[in-house]
Automatic annotation (TrEMBL):
Xref: PROSITE patterns: GRAM_POS_ANCHORING
Source organism: Streptococcus henryi
Alphabetized Pfam families for the sequence: Gram_pos_anchor (PF00746), MucBP (PF06458)
Protein name: LPXTG-motif cell wall anchor domain-containing protein
InterPro entries: LPXTG_anchor (IPR019931), MucBP_dom (IPR009459)
This protein's UniProt keywords: Cell wall, Peptidoglycan-anchor, Repeat, Secreted, Signal
Keyword Repeat carried by entry: yes
Domain annotation Gram-positive cocci surface proteins LPxTG: ranges: 781-813
Stretches the record annotates as Disordered: 752-771
Amino acid sequence: MFRNNQTNKKRKSKSVKNLVGVTVLMGGLMIVGGQVSADELTSVTDTAAVTTTTSEAEVTSTVDLETVNVMTSDMATTASELSEEMIATSAVVASDEASEDVSAKVYTTATIAENNIGSTSSEIAVDVKSIVDGTVTSGQYVDYTFDNINVENLNGKSVATTVGTTIGVLSVASNQTNLNQYVSEQDGEKLNPNNTYHTVVRLTFNEAVNTLKDISFEFSNTARTSNLVSSLAYEVTRKISSGDSVVATETNEVPAWVGLDQQNYTYKSENILYINQGVQTSSNNAIQFVVPVEKALAAGDLITTTIGKNSYVYNLNAKENQVGYTFDITSNRVPFADTAKNSSGVYVYNSDKLKLQVVSADDNKIVYKVLEATITADHGFGINQPTVVTDPTINNDSTFNYSLEFTRDGAVLAASGNRADGDTIVSGTKTNGNAVVVTGTHTTKWMDRETNQELEPAQTTEGKVTDTYDSVRKDFKDYIYVSVDGVTSGNYSVNGSTTTFYYVRAKGTVDVTYHNTVGDEIKSAVVDTVSSPVGTKYDTSDHKPSVIMVTNADGTTTVWQYKELGKGSAKEVGDVVKGNTHVDYVYAEAAVVPVKDMLDKEGRSINGKTVTTGDIVTIKIDGNAISDSIDGGLTRFGLKDILDTLHLEYVDNSVKLIAGKDTHMMLSDGSVIKSGDDVSRYVDFSEKDGEIVAIYRAEFLKMLAENDVEDMVNLDLIFDAKVVAAGDVENTAIEIINDSEFTSESVKFTVEEPQKDTPTPSEAPKADTPTVVKEQSVAVLPSTGETGSVLSVVSGLLSFVAGLFGVRKRKED
């Protein structure tokens, strides 16, 4: 994308030309021409990752032949032809075996040619020629050192003698680079243009040399060598060494890279969408653009890319083009005017980042949303956009128009490119050749919109991209068509297309009505199942109370108990059908009359009988069992008795609270209360001024309502009372169910005073012997009858007093 035209083809004179060196190699790395510290070096892997630019990629790195060419005529071909100067610098061939006697020497000459010198890279050709004086054996080797020259491609290449015998293989024994410009400004100070590559290439001899003497060979390499990109021109020296001797050097000037301020080139872009192969069905294209720091993108901005029609489309099956795909892109290694530099002018790249998300995509347009943006300087970015070729006759070099638009809150920030209608080829030519028929597919689906289940297996058809498909809507039993997603008729697409027809189940409603045996409504109807799809299971039993209590206009309460389903009623459990379904419950009237009785000490009923004051009587009230599935739920249940306090008095601590007839109440632990069980712990009891009340506690009834079973609730109330006064007594009991009260039959009896024994008159004593009466001298008054009258008065007074005492005693009793 960003081409470097800043090159320098003028080469300085070589400081050393056709140097000859003789090496005695001892198997170790030899660094010629100065010390290189380890912290200034990076691995070759790092170099590959950071030094490739667009301009570098245009030059193909090459290595000379698999076997070495014949040596040039200006160099000796045998050891006997070597000059005294060459012999004086001879060296011994190295070996990894410490005990092995190594006596052979290697004589080397080399040349370096640097061409197409650019700010980012140069094309460098090297040629190395060597003669071996003496005998070498398999496994021995000779090393060559290359400084500031990329010779990585020599790794694995074979070397042959001048007569074509392969004598060994080259390998990279060590490779240190210092080209990483993605560092902090502090670390950027360590970047040295004359310390970019330091590579040791080793030739290891094979078994063929065991029978050869005076071996001569040559190898060469041409490759693009990366330069540190600098804002200032600088000189760099390339060197080749053999042993301790430098055998070739080349010094040239690397031109400066003048970074431009991108403020006036907002979002500048180029047509860089290429079809790799005309007969392929896909390609990995990329669209690139520059973001100036003065107009940095921000979160929420949109980037819209559009490509022309008919020639190729976006590959919507590729994850990079699918809606929701989120990814980060890092800025390109291209220096601009505001890119940081070290003190030597070498650019130190600060890597900026964009986080994007695909928010919409179709064959010809993709929209990206900026989620995060870090823009600290002018930077270039690239987005990968896989495409699908729709015209296989396109020439490989054809370039296609596109448009690139940046928007913020609906306003266009900038736009570039030039979209053409119809055929979008703007360069190159079409070739008919062996055209490949491009086809596409279309799928039709019929779906339940609510469950997302298929009503019928989807159907996929295939045809040429120029052919037309038709999707047909179908009818399904118990379903109603509601909408369609997609086009029902159109051309086949290489990305595939889909038409989906959506349906919903036809619906029905189930309601419940309540009538008595003569057809009168006793409770308003309820809806059990509201507008549900046909075929849905329904069960109205949860709307079937066992008892319904109705408050009449006169304040009385009528109790209705479930009897049966009405004539013509739908089933209680079934499937929803289209329309309305009616379930009718019929109830019969039921009497709720608590039973009250009063017993004497012998356990005999005193109803209609007579008791006497002072007697102790037992009052027993039996309730009527009722289901807790009563309409509205059972919220209150109990018994009440109001004593005639003129004649009866409650005996303290005499109460008994017993589960009544038909009781079946399941507790939370699964145990069951049955008739006759003591339930006093679950009942609130009170007595005040003769009003006796026993009520099941609200939390107990709530527990029964939540146990998921139908409970039968009942209560018997038993207590004692003392008869305290004579008279006629009538008493009734009350059963309490929710807000209604039901009265028992009256118990009537009479209270009398206890009868007292009547004393028998005393008889005159009979004397066994005659009584002797002495005569006395008494004055006798005339008989006037007054004596009898006085006795009568005295006798009457005594009787009156005695009567008064009798009345008082009865009251005290």
